Amino acid sequence: MTLDDLTAMMAADEYHRYESSPGGVLSIVTPPGYSHAVIATRLMLWLAQAVGLRIPGRHGGVGGRIPDLVVWSKEQADGVWLPVADVLLVIEVVSPGSEGVDTVTKRSEYAAAGIPQYWMVDQDQAQTVHHLDGNRYTLRATMPLAWVLNTDPAEHDLG
Q: How many CB atoms lie within 10 A of CB 10?
């Protein structure tokens, strides 16, 4: 399955998000709930808007992930599946049903792709900030979302 196939599937089905791992595993995700949307909206106002990312696989495959938010180091060309070369930060809002993918699978894929920071925001707990250390993330901080939203993005080492 190609990223063009995923794009066509999303265009035909407004009720689901389609993602694939670099190894070719298809994930069909139902739209997140209201709480997820509120958190993502608040973060989007604080940072930037999300698009799909091309995630290179360890064995030559290419997957497509759609983070909740992405922060770039520079403006990107228009497209659906953008390369990760200029990504500074990816944020995922963890929702019921997405815990394993967000906390393990995506974290591993984003680290292998070389994305410098990965933040996970749990709807019921504090967010965790992970920084790339070699080819894996290390936990840098855990903090309440309200604290983050009262800071300036420049305070978070975003390049």
A: 17
Q: What is the pLDDT of residues 83-140, one digit of tens each?
A: 899 999 998 988 888 888 888 999 999 999 999 999 998 876 778 889 999 999 999 8
Record the pTM: 0.67
Q: Write the DSSP assignment of the chain as a string of letters.
A: --HHHHHHHHHH-TT-EEEE-TT--EEEEPPP-HHHHHHHHHHHHHS----EEEEE-TTS-EEEE--SEEEESS---S-SEE-STTEEEEEEEE-TTTHHIIIIIHHHHHHHTT-SEEEEEETTS-EEEEEEETTEEEEEEEE-HHHHHTS-GGGG---
**In this structure, what token pair is assigned to residue 15?**
């009720």
